[in-house]
């Protein structure tokens, strides 16, 4: 998988300008709040439209401002797990999971995903009765069942309290190991991606300030953990 | 014990038929127009918004007069419908349903538009990233989430259609058994000597049906909001 994001996006006074190439494996996208991490994911998913430049994946143009080429989000096959789960409130857990699953084309079996994320006890429940961690597991399962070629995880644990975060991380590892779907993982908390990420991209004020290996990122920020192991808390 | 005359029962039955048909015919265009107004910015949006809401502000007799000019036997649309499709509105109960639908339309549109405004666009975005086309997003996410507002809009529209008077009498006249709805039957009773008592009975009946429709609207809204998926 090769994703190339070479574009400019403007929203009022905010400008996001990136020239970036991402391969397979897990890419940690880090940076302080308001630096454009979510906007970058939205551009890749097709939920935000750049005013200049292009986004391509495996040579396929997803958007190109110079030719007005545009692939709508539903045709991109890019899974997206948002900060808040955004489950469909009118469907039960099973309905949410099956929403995107197409038996004819999917390489994943529903039962496998249910087992992978331990969703079996939740299937008949209304989404409003789930805890934050359970909701994010359902959102992750739902995104997996859409057979994405790239998975975007936007601070998927941000709305979950610490003990439950620790509980969901093994599920993310299982997804990473079992399915090897290229993933971009936005986080403020280095420990979530430490030992998991293959590369790091850091954004600062709408620009890429670092893109490279985890080791180089550590060196550039004074030792393991980057920024002294600190979290990228809001300024 | 009150005994209802056949003419009064006809009026009640006709009112219910007219209001029901008006709502059934209005729901699809009302949802479409509400979606356009709530979700799209396009040239002519203000004009469409004004046209839709016009029946709320112009005298009903004016709306009825325009319906007569457009859908009457000699009107451009009415003549074509009668000639090519065999559909006739003037002096028929179908005309009363059209008048009731036009008068109730802005109320339905407003309720649905409000409901669409409250549907979480982020959930719709999530559906799109899951491979759902805009039409599927609308049918499988937007519409079910807006259902309480659509039901409430139809109930209030039904109540409005039941009470419609001015546009109906102007467009299709007041013909017992054909276009004489409850409101028109009350008017006829008031016009004739000794009609006070029957007019009062019909008035109370009209109030009761309208109250029931409003209560049904309230209950439907509650059911849809609390609905366990």
Please summarize what this structure is.
The complex is a heterodimer of chains A (235) and B (229). Chain A has 235 residues and is an alpha/beta fold.
Characterise the protein shown here:
The complex is a heterodimer of chains A (235) and B (229). Chain A is an alpha/beta fold. Chain A has a domain at 3-82 and 149-228: Rossmann fold. Chain A has helices at residues 37-45, 93-98, 110-116, 132-144, 162-179, 190-193, 214-220; strands at residues 3-11, 14-22, 26-30, 52-57, 60-64, 69-70, 78-81, 150-154, 183-186, 199-204, 207-212. In chain A, the strands form two sheets. Chain A has a six-stranded mixed β-sheet with strand order 7-8-9-3-10-11, sandwiched between helices. A five-stranded antiparallel β-sheet of chain A has the order 2-1-4-5-6, covered by helices on one side. In chain A, a hairpin with a 2-residue loop joins strand 4 (52-57) and strand 5 (60-64). The longest helix of chain A has 18 residues, at 162-179. The two termini of chain A are 34 Å apart. Residues 222-235 of chain A have low confidence and may be disordered. With 229 residues, chain B is mainly α. Chain B has one domain (6-226): MetI-like fold (Orthogonal Bundle), CATH 1.10.3720. Chain B contains ten helices and no strands. In chain B, helix 1 (6-39) crosses helix 9, helix 5 packs across helix 7 (134-163) and helix 7 (134-163) runs antiparallel to helix 10. The termini of chain B are far apart. The mean pLDDT of chain B is 91. At the A-B interface, strand 7 of A face helix 6 and helix 7 of B.
Helix-strand layout with pairing:
The complex is a heterodimer of chains A (235) and B (229).
Chain A: E1 3-11, E2 14-22, E3 26-30, H1 37-45, E4 52-57, E5 60-64, E6 69-70, E7 78-81, H2 93-98, H3 110-116, H4 132-144, E8 150-154, H5 162-179, E9 183-186, H6 190-193, E10 199-204, E11 207-212, H7 214-220
Parallel strand pairs in A: 3-9, 3-10, 7-8, 8-9
Antiparallel strand pairs in A: 1-2, 1-4, 4-5, 5-6, 10-11
Chain B: H1 6-39, H2 45-57, H3 60-71, H4 76-85, H5 93-118, H6 121-129, H7 134-163, H8 166-172, H9 182-191, H10 196-226
């Amino acid at each position: 998988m090769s994703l190339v994001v070479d574009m400019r996006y403007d929203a009022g006074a905010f400008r996001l300008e990136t020239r970036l190439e991402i391969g397979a494996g897990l890419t940690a996208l880090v940076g302080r709040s308001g630096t454009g991490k979510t906007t970058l994911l939205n551009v890749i998913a097709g939920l935000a439209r750049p005013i200049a430049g292009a986004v391509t994946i495996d040579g396929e143009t997803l958007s190109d401002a110079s030719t007005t080429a545009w692939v709508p989000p539903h045709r991109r096959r890019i899974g997206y797990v948002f900060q808040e789960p955004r489950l469909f409130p009118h469907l039960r857990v099973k309905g949410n999971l099956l929403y995107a699953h197409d038996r004819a084309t999917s390489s994943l079996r529903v039962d496998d995903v249910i087992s992978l994320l331990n969703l079996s006890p939740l299937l008949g429940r209304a989404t409003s009765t789930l805890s934050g961690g359970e909701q994010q597991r359902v959102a992750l399962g739902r995104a997996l069942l859409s057979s994405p070629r790239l998975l975007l995880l936007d601070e998927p644990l941000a709305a979950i309290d610490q003990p439950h975060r620790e509980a969901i991380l093994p599920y993310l590892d299982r997804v990473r190991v079992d399915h090897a779907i290229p993933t971009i993982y936005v986080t403020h908390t280095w420990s979530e991606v430490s030992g998991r990420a293959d590369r790091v991209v850091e954004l600062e004020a709408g620009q890429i300030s670092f893109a490279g290996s985890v080791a180089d990122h550590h060196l550039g920020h004074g030792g393991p953990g980057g920024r002294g192991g600190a979290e990228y808390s809001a300024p | 014990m009150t005994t209802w005359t056949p003419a009064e029962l006809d009026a009640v039955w006709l009112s219910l038929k007219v209001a029901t048909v008006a709502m059934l015919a209005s729901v699809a265009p009302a949802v479409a127009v509400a979606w356009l107004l709530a979700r799209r910015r396009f040239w002519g949006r203000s004009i469409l918004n004004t046209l839709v809401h016009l029946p709320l502000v112009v005298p009903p007799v004016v709306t009825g007069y325009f319906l007569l000019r457009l859908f009457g036997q000699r009107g451009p649309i009415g003549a074509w419908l009668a000639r090519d499709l065999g559909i006739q509105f003037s002096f028929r109960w179908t005309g009363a349903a059209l008048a009731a639908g036009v008068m109730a339309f802005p109320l339905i549109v407003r309720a649905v538009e409000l409901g669409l405004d409250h549907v979480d666009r982020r959930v719709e975005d999530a559906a799109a990233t899951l491979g759902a086309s805009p039409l599927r997003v609308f049918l499988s996410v937007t519409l079910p989430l807006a259902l309480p507002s659509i039901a409430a809009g139809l109930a209030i529209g039904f109540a409005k259609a039941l009470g419609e008077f001015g546009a109906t009498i102007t467009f299709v006249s007041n013909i017992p058994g054909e276009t004489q709805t409850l409101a028109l039957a009350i008017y006829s009773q008031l016009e004739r000597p000794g009609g006070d008592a029957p007019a009062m009975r019909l008035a109370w009946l009209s109030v009761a049906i309208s109250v029931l429709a409003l209560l049904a609207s309230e209950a439907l809204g509650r059911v849809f909001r609390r609905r366990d998926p």
